[in-house]
Design goal:
By secondary structure, the chain is an all-alpha fold. 72% of the residues lie in helices and 0% in strands. The chain has helices at residues 2-18, 20-28, 35-42, 54-66, 70-80, 88-100, 104-117, 122-134, 138-145, 154-170, 173-178, 190-203, 207-220, 226-238, 242-255, 260-271, 282-299, 303-316, 321-333, 337-345, 354-367, 371-384, 390-401, 405-417, 427-439, 443-456, 461-474, 478-491, 496-508, 512-525, 530-542, 546-558, 566-575. Helix 18 runs antiparallel to helix 19 (321-333), helix 20 packs antiparallel against helix 21 and helix 27 runs parallel beside helix 29. The N and C termini lie far apart (87 Å).
């Protein structure tokens, strides 16, 4: 009894230490060992170690959520849910974990419980509205949607969802379009408005008006859009205008020639196969809204905010390849690599996004340092499509990023060998092969690739920087390198690596004061790069600032420099630098 009391007091003190009414509420809710918890623990799922106490389960869930391990967080929240029935804040945390993990049945059950305690909880109401749409209960869907807050992204989301619900209720696209009136005064939402106008007219059976609406979207779009190309060409193909559909995809392919998604569509249109609608019902329209919002948030570098909408989009259209691919892309962007790989693997071999998904899965594998399956996947893809070079390009990138430069060169050579005619769009392939060649001490070939890349894409800052810096290191073409680096710095004045090169060429030319000025700026822009800090130390030494020089060299050592650079930095710390020797031009 005394031991249990001590443990209980300790748990209470932990609650106080963690701070906040939430933790204390947990303690008072009876979050200790109990028969109720033992029963709940028996329902623990997900293949993770079961917790010994409900408090431990809750902390495990919070820790997993902070580590972006949402499947684990969801599993632990399953364990504690029976014990937090009346704690709406805790239920809301559990709801978010279930949605992020894609466990929508549990999320839906929890939403029903939450609205009893918090009738205006937006995510719960949205879940219930989407469930109602999927069951064609549009009246209930509209009722739930009325309780959703109209703040932030919901200013776009809610009118569009209402429009599709109204279409489901009345089968009248004009009534549905009335729900979008408020968006007409929002310039940033114009493209969304035009796209869903076309979709609503299309699903509502107004084909002539829909055709005009799709043309309006194409005219308003600043550049060729993948989703617009998919939907507009789909409309033309299934309404008898396959020539127009092929013309749409060819327009996209002209600027994105290696993107397989559109090429697969083109092949289908040419084959004469029956084409079904991408958006054929109000439920599909609602899913499209979620997909568009998730895509916009991802493109705005807000992957964490995009993820719930991407999960909901897949929930509404579980077999839609564009939604699944977007979900995988959002997960990868949010550093949830294992979940991203699982999402990409959901795509069927015949799905038009399958090839791109496999490449994206490789990127996620590399981020997890699962190199063996990544390399095997790319080799298999290269064999599968011997007319394509993109898998070999990516293979070279994987080897190069692992400092296996000879293998990278081999892969890049194979990629270049598959290109009938090198043109402007291939400059980057030549650039990365040049890097691998330079690092594997094949300078003449590397220099030729850099110069050719610049001929294909003049003024490209990365190529200017790498070639000019290499010349500086070799003591060659310094004045030309100086002009090239000035041009690169003008294009990218906030790039620490380029500004470092600008400073380093001044150093090599003996202009030490100018070098200090540029290198100080470079360390401000990229403070954690060991080479830049080392360079600044050298420049400080040459202008007589010896204590600052040693500080920079020590800092460079603390930033994990390349193994070959460490002895030189250590020697400078011990002995200083020898007299400067000008480079003979």
């Amino acid at each position: 009894m005394v031991a249990r009391t001590i443990r209980t007091c300790r748990e209470f003190l932990v609650c106080v230490w963690l701070g906040g009414a939430l933790a204390i509420a947990l303690w008072f809710a009876g979050f200790g060992a109990s028969a109720q918890f033992v029963a709940a623990r028996d329902r623990h799922d997900g293949g993770y170690p079961p917790p010994s106490t409900s408090w431990g389960a809750y902390l495990s869930a919070l820790h997993a959520a902070r580590q972006k391990d949402t499947p684990r967080a969801s599993a632990y929240f399953v364990t504690v849910t029976p014990l937090i029935q009346k704690h709406e804040t805790l239920l809301m945390r559990a709801l978010r974990a279930h949605i992020l993990a894609g466990r929508m049945r549990r999320a839906l059950d929890l939403s029903r419980r939450i609205v009893v305690l918090a009738p205006d909880h937006s995510m719960s109401r949205l879940m219930l509205a989407l469930d109602a749409v999927s069951r064609k209960n549009y009246t209930a869907a509209r009722s739930h949607l009325e309780r959703v807050s109209g703040e932030a992204v919901n200013r776009l989301l809610l009118p569009m969802l209402r429009a599709w619900i109204v279409l489901g209720l009345h089968n009248d696209p004009d009534l549905a379009l009335n729900e979008l009136i408020d968006l007409r005064n929002e310039p940033r939402f114009r493209l969304f408005l035009l796209m869903h106008t076309a979709f609503l007219l299309d699903v509502g059976g107004k084909r002539e008006r829909a055709a005009k609406a799709y043309e309006n979207v194409a005219s308003a779009a600043p550049a060729a859009s993948l989703r617009l190309t998919e939907t507009s060409s789909n409309f033309k193909a299934r309404t008898g205008d396959r020539v127009g559909a092929i013309r749409d995809v060819d327009r996209y392919l002209a600027s994105n020639p290696n993107f397989t998604v559109i090429q697969v569509l083109r092949d289908r249109y040419q084959s004469g196969d029956k084409i079904g609608p991408l958006i054929g019902s109000p439920a599909d329209g609602v899913a499209e809204v979620l997909l568009n919002v998730a895509s916009a948030l991802k493109d705005a570098d807000r992957a964490a905010d995009a993820l719930p909408f991407a999960r909901l989009a897949v929930w509404m259209r579980s077999q839609d390849s564009s939604s699944i691919f977007l979900l995988g892309s959002v997960l990868e962007r949010d550093s949830r690599y294992r979940e991203a790989i699982s999402a990409f693997k959901r795509l069927r071999p015949t799905a038009n996004y399958n090839w791109e998904a496999r490449k994206s899965a490789v990127v996620a594998m590399v981020s997890l340092e699962d190199f063996k399956p990544a390399l095997a996947t790319l080799e298999n893809m290269a064999v599968e499509k011997p007319d394509r070079y993109d898998a070999l390009w990516l293979l070279g990138n994987v080897y190069r990023n692992r400092s296996k430069f000879e293998l990278a060169v081999e892969a890049y050579d194979r990629a270049v060998g598959r290109i009938p005619k090198i043109n402007r769009r291939h400059w980057n392939l030549l650039y990365v092969r040049g890097i691998a060649l330079e690092r594997s001490k094949q300078w003449k070939r590397a220099e030729a690739d850099f110069l050719r890349a610049l001929r294909l894409n003049p003024g490209q800052a990365d190529v200017l920087n790498y070639l000019a810096y290499s010349w500086v290191e070799r003591g060659e073409n310094l004045e030309r390198a100086r002009k090239m680096l000035a041009a690169a710095g003008g294009k990218r004045p906030s790039d620490g690596y380029i500004i470092d090169s600008v400073g380093w060429v001044e150093y090599r030319l003996g202009n030490f004061e100018a070098a200090v000025r540029h290198l100080e700026r470079a360390t401000e822009l990229s403070p954690h790069d060991p080479t830049i800090n080392d360079h600044l130390g050298d420049a400080y030494w040459r202008v007589g600032r010896r204590h600052e020089a040693r500080f920079q060299w020590r800092r460079a050592l603390s930033l994990n420099p390349e193994k070959a650079d460490r002895p030189n930095i250590e020697q400078k710390l011990r002995e200083g630098m020898p007299p400067f020797k000008p480079i003979n031009q």
